[in-house]
Amino acid sequence: MIELWTEAVRSIEPKVKPSHRDLWLRPIECLRLSEGKIVLRAPNRYHKEWFEDHFLPSILEDLQARSGRTYEVQFEIAEETAVRTPPPVAFPQPSIETRPVASKPSRDLDLRYTFDKFVVGPTNQFAHAAARMVAEAPASKWNPLFIYGGVGLGKTHLLHAVGQEIARQHPDWHIAFVTCERFVTDFIGSMMNQKRQGGVSLMEEFRTRYRETPDVLLVDDIQFLSNKDSSQDEFFHTFNALHHAHKQIVLTCDKLPGELPGLEDRLRSRFTWGLIAEVCHPDLETRVAILKRKAEIDQVELSDEVALYLGAHVKSNVRELEGALLRLAARASIEARPITKELAQETLQKFLASAPTGLTVEAIQREAAAYFDVKLHDLKGPKRHRAVAHPRMVAMYLARRLTSMSYPEIGSRFGGKDHSTVISAVRKIERLYAQDPSLRSVINTLESHLREP
Length: 453
Ligand code: ADP
Ligand code: MG
Description:
By secondary structure, this protein is of the alpha/beta class. It has four domains: 2-81, 2-Layer Sandwich (GMP Synthetase, Chain A, domain 3); 99-279, P-loop containing nucleotide triphosphate hydrolases (Rossmann fold, 3-Layer(aba) Sandwich), CATH 3.40.50.300; 284-354, Orthogonal Bundle (Helicase, Ruva Protein, domain 3), CATH 1.10.8; 361-451, DnaA protein, C-terminal DNA-binding domain (Chromosomal Replication Initiator Protein Dnaa, Chain: A, Orthogonal Bundle), CATH 1.10.1750. 56% of the residues lie in helices and 10% in strands. The strands form two sheets. A five-stranded parallel β-sheet has the order 5-6-7-4-8, with helices on both faces. Helix 12 (284-297) crosses helix 13, helix 12 (284-297) packs across helix 14 and helix 16 runs antiparallel to helix 18. The longest helix is centred in the middle third of the chain and has 18 residues, at 180-197. The protein binds adenosine-5'-diphosphate and magnesium ion. Magnesium ion is lined by residues 155-156, 220-221.
């Protein structure tokens, strides 16, 4: 009878993205199916809920069509029924005695960044779900979790949220949160001092701190390892020690592992061992929802009309969206005026005029030309072959997104091209952006160079 279930699941698989299929569908086990009753087993409660919301209805529909009857579904939660067995010991592990006593959640975790404050939309849904999964069942399956995407899109927020959720469920665990920059500075500091003092204690301390103490290691902005050979080497060993000991690792990055320059292959491959999840620019609806949520948290009175206005005009990223709301609220409070669309218009005019960082089309063109290795005058010129046309379209797209210029204005900066050329370039890149992760990564890289030159 269980085959009936298997067939029904198979029938919906073609409609499900492969990554979702592996993450959500495959781990659901059918224990029994008889007389209108199905018993399923999910790895944890969160998984069950996601599965019920997203997949179960279509599977049941198929099942009912096949068998001509309805079913009642029951769930068992693996986590709650299983007796926990310790992970297999594959490599020498630090003995329990030498482990420092676990402390409370890392003081470095930002209490504002929790799951319940994270607004989920189509462009971050997968990353959010993956982060929830990892927080529910650390080191059971997806290790490491690698979250990547452009600036200000919620990577750091998700990383802290994972840490806080694990800390809540395992109060005695040691959750280590560190920015990659801090890891590198710590490492170099320990190394230099060790040489100076001729002892080994600082380096040992460093290694205990990162390789032995953590039950979970969260590293923000791992791209900072690019071109830093000795730090990469150290991180490689840190990674291995924790991974072998079945400790969860979560990393964030502004690029895909494959696109990080100056990264050793062995690290690159490790970064892809687990699950890679992307955060993209939120759509209008999500931007508005984020604003409403943020206003609620900060107790700012924000009407739907004003939220929609802000959301429609501030598109670059969530950080700037929050910035715009903050400015608006500050101005309303200083001038003792209610938050109206007019006030938003006045405030935003200044904000958008300098948006996002006073970038000019010329700066974008220079950056794109350098990145794609084409000549600036070709980028602005009439040549149509792909080697030039593609970088040009990307530059036009960025100009439209990152400056407040109109299509005709942008066209004029590209050697007097017609506004319709700019529009079709922007549309084309928008379309590709949605489909092509490596293009997204290129655009994220260009954007982060432009914002933080
Ligand atoms: P990143 O690390 O990707 O550059 P952050 O995580 O620092 O971005 O996010 C920037 C700001 O935007 C933070 O204040 C964060 O709380 C907020 N933010 C980002 N995405 C969301 C979201 N989906 N819901 C609520 N707030 C968000
Ligand atoms: Mg960040």
